[in-house]
């Protein structure tokens, strides 16, 4: 792969209970475990950051495929729900649900665009076969 862009971020402190910062300082956040995992929940966490990145990336892919398929994706939205839990082998695993909303498309067109975006999105390509990703087209 020829890199078009490389993002660099640094984690310090205790990881989930620490700090993250991008090299260009555009991202500069405290991280805290969520209350559901015994933390204070007073900062962001890796799952929220992953959900934000995946939803933004998938929405961008949706617009690209929408143009290619002549499907109007204006006003489209994507929500990503990222879950963390035991993988049954002493570690942890992730699962993702993407909720795709395309107000100007028929249900069939929306499904076609969501399926096509899933083949284009770099996050989808990186996670394919590694974690469960469910895509739901919502009205």
How is the biggest beta sheet arranged? 3 strands, antiparallel
Tell me, rounded to a whole number, the average pLDDT.
97
Q: How many separate domains make up the residues?
A: 2
How many beta strands in the DSSP annotation? 6
Helices, by number, come to: 3
State the secondary-structure class.
alpha+beta
Strand order of the largest sheet: 1-2-3
Compact summary:
This protein has helices spanning 46-69, 107-120, 122-127, and strands at residues 9-14, 17-22, 28-31, 77-86, 92-101, 132-138. By secondary structure, it is an alpha+beta fold.
Please supply descriptive tags for the structure shown above.
139 residues, 6 strands, alpha+beta, GMP Synthetase, Chain A, domain 3, three-stranded mixed sheet, 31% strand, N-terminal domain of TfIIb, three-stranded antiparallel sheet, single chain
Outline the structure in words:
- With 139 residues, the protein is of the alpha+beta class.
- The chain has two domains: 1-44, N-terminal domain of TfIIb; 46-138, K homology (KH) domain (GMP Synthetase, Chain A, domain 3, 2-Layer Sandwich).
- The protein contains three helices and six strands, in the order βββαββααβ.
- The protein has helices spanning 46-69, 107-120, 122-127; strands at 9-14, 17-22, 28-31, 77-86, 92-101, 132-138.
- It has a three-stranded antiparallel beta sheet with strand order 1-2-3, with no helix packed on it. Strands 4-5-6 form a three-stranded mixed beta sheet.
- A hairpin with a 5-residue loop joins β4 and β5 (92-101).
- α1 (46-69) crosses α2.
- The protein is globular and about 50 Å long.
- The N and C termini lie far apart (37 Å).
- The mean pLDDT is 97.
């Amino acid at each position: 792969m020829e890199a078009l862009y490389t993002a660099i971020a640094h984690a310090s402190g205790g990881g989930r209970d620490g700090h993250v910062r991008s090299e260009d300082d555009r991202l500069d956040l405290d991280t805290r475990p969520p209350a559901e995992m015994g933390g204070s929940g007073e900062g962001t966490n890796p799952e929220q950051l992953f959900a934000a990145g995946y939803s933004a990336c998938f929405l961008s892919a949706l617009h690209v495929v929408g143009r290619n398929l002549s499907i109007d994706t204006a006003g489209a939205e994507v929500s990503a729900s990222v879950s963390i839990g035991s993988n049954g082998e002493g570690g942890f695993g992730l699962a993702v649900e993407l909720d795709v909303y395309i107000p100007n498309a028929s249900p069939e067109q929306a499904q076609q665009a969501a399926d096509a975006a899933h083949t284009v999105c770099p996050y989808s390509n990186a996670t394919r076969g590694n974690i469960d990703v469910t895509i739901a087209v919502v009205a």
